[in-house]
Amino acid sequence: MNALKVRVENGRIKLDEPTDLPEGTELYLVPADSGDELDDEERAALHASIEEAERELDEGKVVSEKELWARLRAIP
Q1: Is 36 part of any domain?
Q2: Beta bridge partners of residue 14, listed in sequence order
Q3: How far is CA 34 from CA 13, 30, 37, in A?
Q4: 1 lies in some domain
Q5: Cα dist. 10→15, 16, 30 in Å?
């Protein structure tokens, strides 16, 4: 099922489009996530880390799952 887009008007929740949900269906509404709490510097650092990881993958700088777990378990 696709997400339903709704809006609030005068304190009432309004659907923007028809739905094929069965009559009597109960829904739990949660406000849409407005994103994360990263500032510009933190977001830039995150993207740089992701790009570095992608380069390492492309260069074959990887370890097996078994090796990864062994390294993690060795951390005091």
Answers
A1: yes
A2: 7
A3: 19, 12, 9
A4: no
A5: 14, 15, 18
